[in-house]
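Board notes (copied after class):
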Amino acid sequence: MANLMRRPAWQLPARLATPEKMFLNRRRFLKEMGFCLGGLGVGTITSAFGAALDTDAAKNSSTRYPAPRNKTFNPGWRLTNEKAAASYNNFYEFSASKEDVRKLVPPFEISPWPIQIGGLVQKPLALDVQELIEQFPLEERVYRFRCVEAWAMIVPWTGFPFSKLIEKVAPKSEARFVRLESFHRPEQAPGIKQLPQSPWPYVEGLRLDEAVHPLTILVTGVYGKPLPKQHGAPLRLIVPWKYGYKSIKSITKIDFVSEQPATFWETLAPDEYPFQSNVNPKMTHPRWSQATERLIDTGDRVRTQLYNGYGDSVARLYSSG
């Protein structure tokens, strides 16, 4: 794991940043699907942010935050500006406009939050998410985050390894995949009603060996505080070597299954959002290049690395030998 601390090649000096030339969002795709998409620019991030990241998150703060930072995942990179990260969020349950998500999440109720963990396991669980979180020590990890739309950020997530929960529920030998499901509350999330053609609720999935990998974490906080709603409170997944849509938000259900689950974006457009979705600069998206990425707070464009820079740790999962 020590290799993860090396400074990545993609973190270039600002003087080497390439000017942004690509149109990198899902506007055309959603338009073709009959959806309506708001503006996705970043010019108004700081001015539109307002005074607070999330008042409910502040109310729910506890002595568990900030959690101690794991030294293995503390490479000394420059963190993305916190306000920028909290104001530029893909969360289609609320809006297709990244800047509007933060404004629409206040009515979203995250407590109580029942969660079920079951399927092909020996010890299924059904409890409130806070009861679940209390069973695991929390730690902070600095990770790169790469969206399929070719924007990126560097974020200090707080959470615990997914493998700890998997060990607790003891999957059966037939379990080969993990299926994760988000909430379905049209009365609190207006985007669900606005996009009725979509296969709600949002579902994602991993192979079991990907889920138990040490890099895969369940996240409860960010920037030393409880997770704001626009980031996927109260519990989300982070898989740093995959495109961001794999890191499902606001999880309500986790099932261990024998067959590869159908996922949200793969169901809508399998040629654009396949199940595996590892970051790969050489595998272009049908509508844009993945060779570079834009940092959301500075606008700098930098090179994308295979597996988002985590290849030393995860490439073995995909070797053909």
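Comment from the instructor: The two ends are 22 Å apart (CA to CA). The chain has one domain: 2-313.
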